[in-house]
Amino acid sequence: MQLILRIGRIQLSHSQHTIIFVSDTQFRNYLIYRRKQGQFCIVDRDEKQLAVNAAKMNPVRIDIVSDLVCPWCYIGRKRLANALAQIPEVETQIHWQPFELFPLIPVNGVERHAHMAKVFGSARRRDAVFAQVTQVGQTEGLDLRFDRIARSPNTFLLHRLLWKAGQEGYQDTLAMVFFNAFFTENRDLTQPDQIATILAPFNWSRADLDQFLASDEGASVVRHQQRLYRFAGVSSVPTYFFNNQLILVGAQPPDQFVQAVTRAAHQTQLPAGH
Fold this sequence. Notes:
Helix content: 40-55%
Order of helices and strands: EHHEHEEHHEHHHHHEEH
CATH architecture: 3-Layer(aba) Sandwich
CATH class: Alpha Beta
Shape: globular
Oligomer: single chain
Strand content: 5-15%
Distance between the termini: 26 Å
Number of strands: 7
Number of helices: 11
Number of domains: 1
Low-confidence stretches: 1-48, 50-54
Mean pLDDT: 85
CATH superfamily: Glutaredoxin
């Protein structure tokens, strides 16, 4: 069964279907080609290889390239959870990778409604898009309250905090807490007091947060990871990497995640460092 569903560039506001399946050598060549050509390089793998490895089930590392102000990233994670519940026999590890949709937003944020009207070209278009996304979110059990979000934050600090959470073992949980805080509780994520409240259940004191804010801990890693994934061709979020062999773009339906995870589990894994 062919996994390549679409060829072309991925637009920020769309949830298109793009799955790229590659062998070890092809994956490296793919990255080189992407860098040189600036367009998607679609490659496939011999189906006979799938049959050879079908009996072996490997753990699957899922890297989610995401931004915490992206509603499709929130929806996609919920759909991924539904998919993983259908295949409990597959061992998975989820790692969040940084991608700033709006890196030029100042540290104190910007007024949300005017900013998003500018992003979408008009207030009418903004409202239409958010109405559609709200409906999609409802089908996934998510209460997305776009009209109550007052400010758009610069998410670099949030990505640093996610990186820190990854060092301490609660990254995926914190990501979902941030999504809920922004889209449902409509917390102002530009305010340290609000962030401190969110972090309190994870044994962060306000002094811990202040110390982190005063440092540059994790900053170089976050910048490096963003450069790495942009070099790999990521231009929109969410984008999912399964053992660095399968790439899936967009908040896909659960069956697409099931298919991608299952196939990744049956493949020979890339050597460490690739």
